[in-house]
Design brief:
428 residues; alpha/beta; N-utilizing Substance Protein B Homolog, Chain A; Alpha-Beta Plaits; 4 domains; seven-stranded mixed beta sheet; four-stranded antiparallel beta sheet; 19 helices; 16% strand; globular
Length: 428
């Protein structure tokens, strides 16, 4: 049995059955240690995840009982096989079938014949298979083609033009770039570029953030000595831009609420040259350990972590901060490229509770800003209800703040994650 396909199957099973996050599963040392072709295994996992609804739609056409009645093990092996046959040009059809049968012998005992027959039916009929009719049901067509829950498509169609929405859906299925942030506390950018190129990486400078680097041929970089020494952090350029717009100064006092796991906190500390003080708070105590570990790896000493419910005002911090960052909990629709499972979240009442909660956090955190200080609100989502409407509601009831800058980054426009960033200043 091919070790890479076996590892991909086990990763997909964890994501399907245990609701594990794909980015965490794929970065796990246990997963990576089993691979002989990591690029192939990663492409297979993400390809199946990104196209899950499309693959199930195809399964429905070759399995009389439909995909919904299949066991998770059978369904995952079929998805993997169909994806290799239909969407991975590097894999011969016979190899995809044979390896899928081998997986079935190990994980779907007694179903090898069913897997073999189903995949051969797909090979025979795939050129005649059609997507749902677009004219009669635009949402279903887009939902199947790009594998998104219909409510996401309906929401975006209500907020953006149809052509833009399809571009956004397509961009969400693209593989994200591997981007790192140079830790200037330990190394200069050009020196790190030389070190990376010496290690076989292809490096391009960022467009939005001075110390962002786009890396190709990055295999093994996360396990490298350079990473362990804290010379860089892995972070999308959109996320880095939050720290840039916040404009933290040396020797200033910064409050970062909802801070874990700490990527933006560390970017802020590096911009401050590790001079001043940062309070990084989060409601989850265990997650604050991630912030502390990152600070240790990067050589950051000015961050103090604190367990706190951001919906409540911390009276110890009232009007003490020069800068406050509210990176609010959100629906995460801007990071689908990295976490494809977000596309399959069902529409629940939680979506309706997010904007009021975000507004509550923003209001509580605004109390920490000194007169003349800066408040930045950010999310990693694409939804006007969680972004522009939250800011409008806040400013309407808080006239001491004025909006200075608003940015909405889009994967189909900027090539980054989808991020909303709004900078406000306290003028009274």
């Amino acid at each position: 049995m091919d070790a890479n396909r076996k590892a991909a199957y086990l990763a997909l099973l964890d994501i399907e059955v245990k609701n594990a996050f794909s980015n965490i599963v794929l970065s796990n040392q246990k997963f990576r240690s089993k691979l002989t072709a990591p690029a192939f295994a990663t492409e297979l996992v993400y390809g199946v995840l990104e196209n899950k609804m499309l693959l199930d739609y195809l399964i429905d056409q070759i399995v009389p009982s439909g995909s919904a009645k299949l066991k998770a093990s059978d369904k995952i092996v079929l998805r993997m096989g169909i994806y290799q046959i239909g969407y991975m040009n590097s894999v011969p059809e016979y190899a995809a079938v044979n390896e899928s049968v081998n997986l079935a012998k190990r994980f779907c005992r007694g179903r090898e014949g069913f897997i073999n027959a189903s995949l051969r039916t797909y090979i025979r009929d795939k050129d005649d298979m059609q997507l749902p009719d677009r004219e009669s049901d635009e949402v279903r067509y887009l939902s199947v083609k790009y594998s998104y829950e219909p409510w996401i498509i309906e929401m975006w169609l209500s907020q953006f033009e149809k052509k833009f929405v399809e571009e956004l859906l397509k961009a969400g299925n693209n593989k994200p770039d591997f981007v790192i942030r140079v830790n200037l506390l330990k190394i200069k950018r050009d020196e790190l570029i030389k070190n990376l190129e010496a290690a076989g990486c292809i490096v391009e400078k960022g467009k939005l953030y001075d110390d962002a680097l786009y890396i190709k041929n990055s295999h093994g970089l996360i396990d490298s000595k350079m990473f362990k020494q804290g010379l860089f952090s892995i972070q999308d350029e959109a996320s880095m831009l939050v720290a840039s717009i916040l404009e933290p100064q040396k020797d200033s006092f910064v409050v970062d609420v909802c801070a874990a796991p700490g990527g933006k906190t560390m970017a802020i500390a590096e911009k401050m040259n590790d001079e001043g003080q940062i309070i990084a708070s989060d409601i989850y105590v265990k997650k604050l350990g991630l912030v502390d570990r990152e600070a240790s790896r990067l050589g950051v000493s000015i961050v103090k972590t604190k367990a706190w419910d951001a919906t409540k005002t911390d009276n110890e911090l009232i009007e003490k901060a020069d800068r406050v960052l509210v990176d609010a909990p959100c629906s995460g629709l801007g990071v689908i490229r990295r976490k494809p499972e977000i596309k399959y979240k069902k529409r629940t009442d939680e979506m309706d509770t997010l904007p009021p909660k975000q507004l509550q956090i923003l209001k509580a955190s605004s109390e920490y800003v000194k007169p003349g200080g800066v408040l930045v609100y950010s999310t990693c989502t694409i939804n006007t209800d969680e972004n522009q409407e939250v800011i409008a509601g806040f400013l309407m009831n808080n006239p001491s703040f004025v909006k200075e800058e608003t940015v909405q980054l889009m994967p189909n426009v900027n090539g980054t994650d989808g991020f909303f960033i709004c900078k406000m200043r306290k003028v009274i």
